[in-house]
Every structure is written in structure tokens, then in C-alpha cells.
Amino acid sequence: MTLKEKTKILDKDDIDRALQRIAHEIIEKVKATGDIAVVGIKNRGAYLAERLASKIEKITNSKVPVGALDITLYRDDLTEASSQPVVHATEITFDIDGKKVMLVDDVLYTGRTIRCALDALIDLGRPGQIQLAVLIDRGHRELPIRADYVGKNVPTSLKEVVEVRLSESDGKDEVVLCEKED
To answer: Going by CATH, does the domain composed of 11-160 fall within 3.40.50.2020?
Structure first.
């Protein structure tokens, strides 16, 4: 299967503005920012989590713990994804017990990735609350999961794919809508 690029949804500035807005929304909703911890789902969610935590820190002038969560072994499609899955380290060096954890991912689609991340987080401790922030919500949920903070809602067809490209992994920042070609 190949992908044909259709439309650029967000550019570098749009991504930055979306993260800035989400940071302000989190601060407004949570109030006690000393209880916030930001955890990104590897890989692109972790990069977005770093950026989001930095923005929250700049606004509040207080340090926000940030970590990265690997959900590979929690996936329900593990055997379909690869016969030799690549497991990355979870990098959470702080106690999540009682924290208001902001779980961050790049695209919310079926909800299965988020379910895996919730299982992985609960295995690490007992957060006081878990909220979800995503850059793109494309719809097509299979599980009853919704984001608390959304950078952009992008209605898609099942033939379309949302590609988030970030400078940390892809050399540039953009979100592109592509179409599957058989």
C-alpha cells in the first residue's frame, strides 16, 4: 500500500499555535499546576509532550515533569504488527501517584492506542486523574475514548491517513492528509 499526499492540514506555526492553546486550556482547567505531569506516547506523542510541557512551564514559571511511555507490549494487535516487536524504554522518572497526568499523542483514531497507554500508566502507579491531549482527532472511534484537549479535529474517510511529521523524527513539522492507494 502506498500513500498519496492530498492536503497539508497544519504547518510548523499551526502546530506551535495548537500546542500553545492546549497549554493554556490545561492551565485554565487544572488550576493547581504543581500537580501536573505530562506523559507522551512514544514516539511522536513523546515529542509533543516535551513541547507541551515546555509551554506550560513558560506560562506558569514552574517545572513540569515530563515522560515518555512505550505501549508496545500492551497492544492488542501485537502479533499482527510484527513477529519481532521493537520495545523502547518507558522514560518516566517521577512518581505519578496522585498526579494529574496529561497523556499526549499525535493522532486520536480508533482509541486503541489510548486504551493501551491507560493500561501502561496504571501499571506504573495511581494517578489522581488522567486527561488526554492530542494534536489531531480524526474520528472513527472503536472504543469510548475522547480527548480533553484537541489541536484540530479533522474528519476523515477510512481511505485516508493522517501523517504527523515532527522535526525530531522527520526533519520538519507538518501534518498531512494522505490517501491510501492500492
So the answer is: yes
Sketch the domain layout of the chain as residue ranges.
11-160
Q: Report the distance separating Cα 126 and Cα 148, nearest Å.
A: 19
> pLDDT tens string for the chain (182 positions)?
799 999 999 999 999 999 999 999 999 999 888 899 999 999 999 999 999 999 999 999 999 999 999 998 887 765 554 555 566 689 999 999 999 999 999 999 999 999 999 999 999 999 999 999 999 999 999 999 999 999 999 999 999 999 999 999 999 999 999 999 87
